């Protein structure tokens, strides 16, 4: 495209809330035939709310357990953590217990010590890696919650799971239509998430994706590998994401697209930023880039 066409194209994009970093990015956007979209905060609102908090065994006051959970999560920046902290604040429990040896395990959960006792919160894998056995009853409870599209997390002390917390994150109003528009253009759409398979499929169904197009339980370091795998299949791939955990995949993609509502790291890595996080802008972006490129001749 001519420099003028590119200036007009990127200018038009910017006016519509689509920030494109230069002419090369715009040219690549015109060639996309596969789009990989992160779930949490991208397809969904990323404003999860706690729907269940269940203490296992007879541990006395559930709020004493909630205090510990919330104080740990207060040190995490994850949207799931924010949901738990807000819930605890609503219940007016203390969320400021002193935590030492805090550790955030990206894509898995958090860990920390309160009052000399170490706790882990997060996925089944994280808990089992600590050598803690999750009971069949707990696994069944979690799988039921997940089939309702919720993300369920385990809180464990050094011996056992002491609570289960479930969080629901609504799909953005426009996500389904946005995917429909991309499908209509012949673009293949995939969902990629660190969340579990059942939750992922439930959300996938809501936005019109079949389970073959849903990649779940993907660790952050593997998100980039999925994108690379599609590229190896001769696809011209865009990756859309909002989190720190998406940054490597954004970098590997032919076109990395960040949410303006997401983390700075994602935006710095990406070629394009959708300012409002509205996925309808994806289709607009491809139209815009194609129009600009057609001005070559
Ligand atoms: P996504 O790809 O959907 O944005 P992540 O890769 O960030 O998800 O996280 C994957 C999973 O790890 C979450 O679904 C959750 O079970 C667990 N997890 C991540 N961060 C936390 C946290 N701060 N507290 C508890 N669990 C967490
Ligand atoms: Mg995300």
Give a concise summary:
The chain has 297 residues and is an alpha/beta fold. It has helices spanning 3-15, 23-29, 39-43, 62-73, 79-90, 124-129, 136-147, 175-184, 197-206, 220-232, 247-252, 264-269, 280-293; strands spanning 18-20, 34-38, 49-55, 100-105, 109-114, 117-122, 151-156, 161-168, 188-192, 214-215, 237-241, 255-259, 272-274. The chain contains 13 helices and 13 strands.
Description:
The protein is built from 13 helices and 13 strands. With 297 residues, the protein is an alpha/beta fold. Strands 1-13-12-11-2-9-10 form a 7-stranded mixed beta sheet, with helices on both faces. A 6-stranded antiparallel beta sheet has the order 3-8-7-6-5-4. Strand 5 and strand 6 (117-122) form a beta hairpin. The radius of gyration is 21 Å and the shape is elongated. The chain starts with a helix and ends with a helix. Magnesium ion is lined by residues 38, 40-42, 241-243.
**Number of E-state strands:** 13
Instruction: Please identify the oligomeric state.
Output: single chain
Helix content: 40-55%
For the record, give the distance between the C-alpha atoms at the N and C termini, rounded to a whole number.
8 Å
Spatial order of the strands in the main sheet? 1-13-12-11-2-9-10
Helix/strand-derived category reads alpha/beta
The main pleated sheet reads as:
7 strands, mixed
Ligands in the model, by name, code or SMILES, are: adenosine-5'-diphosphate, magnesium ion
